[in-house]
Amino acid sequence: MAARARALVRRVEQAPPPPGPFRPGFWRSPLRGPWLTSVFGLALLIGIPLLFVTGMLSYASYNPGLNPINDQTPDKGLLGFYLFAWPTRPYWLYRLTQGVHVTLGVVLVPVLLAKLWSVIPKLFEWLPVRSVAHGLERLSLLMLVGGVIFEFVTGIINIQLFYVFPGSFYTLHFYGAWVFIAAFLVHVCLRLGRMTRALRSRSLAAELRTDLAHTRPEPPDPDGLVPTAPAPPTMTRRGALALVGGGSLLLLVVTAGQSIGGRLRSTALLAPHNRTPGSGPNAFQINKTAASVGVTPAHVGPDWRLEIHGPGGTLVFTRAQLLAMPQHGAALPIACVEGWSTTNQQWSGLRLADLAALARLPDAGSVLVRSVQPHGPYSSVVLRGNQIHDPRSLLALHVNGADLSLDHGYPARVIVPANPGVNNTKWVHRLTFRT
């Protein structure tokens, strides 16, 4: 029986590969080879860990370990081992980390596509699995390629405010990131030595001086990236690097302005919030309008009241009563998960710390903020004690010297330093302070 099985394996190994991309002569680009693949790989080796770290920081900024209300991925288990109390200083922290995450993710797209192009013959190896070790390597490659495509596609669709995948973006993107980074680390461990040798095999300066007439294929390699029957070159390696680098630079120019703001915002052609939103005190970007979440003028009309709950019972205030209290100001931006942010806006209102004192809980450890928004994502949020006690954390009533507009959260909204935009709850009607 064992002899028959071995004979069958030998026949399969000796059989010619099927036609098409499994044939060695199918891939003919003379540019493919370990050196060019390693150059693209080096760029990803630098960029992807930074992308992963900023993504995990984005998740931590929602304070998901604080309360189930904040947790968009409740089954994270051990994957939440690193979570920590998100700080309020510096106030632009979330604006920076999420801006880097989104911008870098877009900028790396040409590099990623070039890397996949350079190694595509590996995806069509014949036989697909030759041993247990080879099978594990192939599995890690499948997870790597599938994971990176999934993460980039879902992320880019989400930042365009158009999400079509089943399930929560946060859950899918979170788990996908961990699957991908695990495969990435395995791949790096398996290939780092080969990549280092490949990079040393050629001089970057020499390649940048090589013209088309002197462009030659790399020597045959054990991984089969170099074609067995290369076609005449139609582009130099410096041209390939320039094409990829130019594509990344172009994407940087048309994306980064949404995070940097100011005059550069008009250059963010691919950003959903790139347009100038008009003039006046409330003329800055809006994440969600009142109409889009079912908040109507009736919800925030003359009958609106703010309820403050604490150990001392319930206090109820009209907006006029809130305006009669001492007002405080803070210059803070709004920064969102899609990577866009505003410049600093001048907010004024009541300090959350003062409202905690009114609730007879001056050392409050958290506060549950509820909106008049009908039930839905981010209609409620829990803020930490450090967020309550930062003097710039406000229940804002005005912005830039004027009443909040309905779309910006009239009659009252929360604004907290370094807080993701969706956690700066709008249309607030209840604050419940807790120990």
UniProtKB/TrEMBL annotation:
PANTHER family: BLL0505 PROTEIN, PROTEIN-METHIONINE-SULFOXIDE REDUCTASE. Residues 212-231 are annotated as: Disordered. Keywords: Membrane, Transmembrane, Transmembrane helix. This is Membrane protein. Residues 301-434 form the Oxidoreductase molybdopterin-binding domain. Signal peptide: none annotated. InterPro entries: OxRdtase_Mopterin-bd_dom (IPR000572), OxRdtase_Mopterin-bd_sf (IPR036374). The keyword Transmembrane helix applies. SUPFAM superfamilies: Oxidoreductase molybdopterin-binding domain (SSF56524). The keyword Membrane applies. It comes from Streptomyces nodosus. The lineage of its organism: Bacteria, Bacillati, Actinomycetota, Actinomycetes, Kitasatosporales. The chain crosses the membrane at residues 35-60, 99-120, 141-163, 175-193, 240-260.
